[in-house]
Amino acid sequence: MIPFQAWVESTGSLSYVSNPSVIFHQESIISHEKIKLASGADVPSVGLGFWKIDRAVAADVVQSSIDVGYRHFDAACDYGNEAEVGQGLAAAISSGKVRRHELWVTSKLWNTYHRGEHVRQAVKRSLADLRFDYLDLYLVHFPISLAFVPFEHRYPPGWFYDPKATSPAMKSDLVPIRETWEAMQELVREGLVREIGVSNFGTSLLRDLMSYATIPPAVLQIELHPFLTQEKLLRFCQESSIAVTGFSPLGAESYFSINMAKPDEGVITLPIVQSIAAKYKRSAAQVVLRWGVQRGTAIVPKTSNLERLRENLALFDFELTAEEMKTISGLNQNRRFNDPGDFAEAAFNTFFPIYE
Ligand SMILES: NC(=O)c1ccc[n+]([C@@H]2O[C@H](COP(=O)([O-])OP(=O)(O)OC[C@H]3O[C@@H](n4cnc5c(N)ncnc54)[C@H](OP(=O)(O)O)[C@@H]3O)[C@@H](O)[C@H]2O)c1
């Protein structure tokens, strides 16, 4: 095992860590193939994200990803493809390629289901679609509560309260996060989910949540890439034994096609990233993803392309130097591509900031 200080020096970006006892990635220090949750559960540090994976190909993508070695899957009600993801997972399990307990499957509670009485219904629907009797991790997708849309009325409900209205918009419903979290805790007690966590939360909301949680959040999922490094939030999570998963780990790549990133905002096209990639004979995407796992977070890159599935998982036979880690972290611009304060107004006619 590498001594704590050596690890900090070798990763560079974690040099802010002051208390070795809060590190829950110890046994993965060398390879970073897994992260450990406070409960002791191991999670593969690279998972496959399902946002914007077409329903028509989702089941096949799941099967191909299992063939190339993925065991961690990041799904959500809102992605609209959980039934197809479930179909692919069920086929892989029934063909004997993999067993349920070897998988780590995450889903997320949608914004319209924050009321205590809807949380169980929401997880039951995700479980039915995924064809499982338990989830490994269930996250509150956003600290945004919207008016309930009955399951039989529209599923997944999306952001608009009534998409057919003359001027469709989001409809807020002010539900205390405590009410939602207490219902999430019940899911653990009932055995429907093994771990619970949150997504798109900051330190203030986490502190408040931890003031009453009897089951603290195991995981925080947030946007993380070289243009949004969020060191203070990572440090806070480390000191609070909350593991972190980074979404959109490739930065702007996910956002070009939906006009949420400008053409010149790419991370993987940056000359410095490309030159590090050339040194290791790796792709620029692999360098950025390696930076993500090497700083101790899990990542959930999305692709439906077989070559990229392999590429995005092949991160464990090279290591960036402390200097390279620092250089990549130094690209930070606090650029958040996935910001409800912008997209809710642009796409859903509703001003809905959450970070300000
Ligand atoms: N909790 C939340 O609020 C939240 C928000 C956003 C995302 N997420 C989760 O995080 C996952 C990942 O985030 P994301 O999908 O936004 O972004 P991402 O994984 O960083 O980027 C996906 C984009 O990059 C392309 N890509 C993938 N691998 C590549 C490679 N090796 N080289 C070049 N391009 C590559 C993909 O295209 P192809 O598919 O064509 O390969 C796609 O356009 C999501 O799928 C979802 O599960 C969660």
Can you characterise this structure?
This protein is α/β, with parallel strands linked by helices. It has helices spanning 4-11, 55-68, 82-94, 116-130, 177-189, 203-212, 231-239, 271-280, 284-294, 306-313, 322-329, 340-348; strands spanning 34-36, 42-44, 48-49, 72-74, 104-109, 135-140, 193-199, 219-223, 243-247, 298-299. Helix 2 runs parallel beside helix 3, helix 4 packs across helix 5 (177-189) and helix 8 (271-280) crosses helix 9 (284-294). It has an eight-stranded parallel sheet with strand order 3-4-5-6-7-8-9-10. The protein has twelve helices and ten strands. The termini are far apart. Residues 1-29 have low confidence and may be disordered. Strand 6, helix 5 (177-189) and strand 7 (193-199) form a beta-alpha-beta unit. Bound molecules: NADP nicotinamide-adenine-dinucleotide phosphate (NAP). The site of NADP nicotinamide-adenine-dinucleotide phosphate has 26 residues, from helix 10.
List the main descriptive attributes of the protein structure presented here.
356 residues, two-stranded antiparallel sheet, 8-stranded parallel beta sheet, single chain, binds NADP nicotinamide-adenine-dinucleotide phosphate, alpha/beta, globular, 12 helices, 10 strands, disordered N terminus
Please give a quick description of this structure.
By secondary structure, the protein is an alpha/beta fold. The chain is built from twelve helices and ten strands. The strands form two sheets. It has an eight-stranded parallel beta sheet. A two-stranded antiparallel ribbon has the order 1-2.
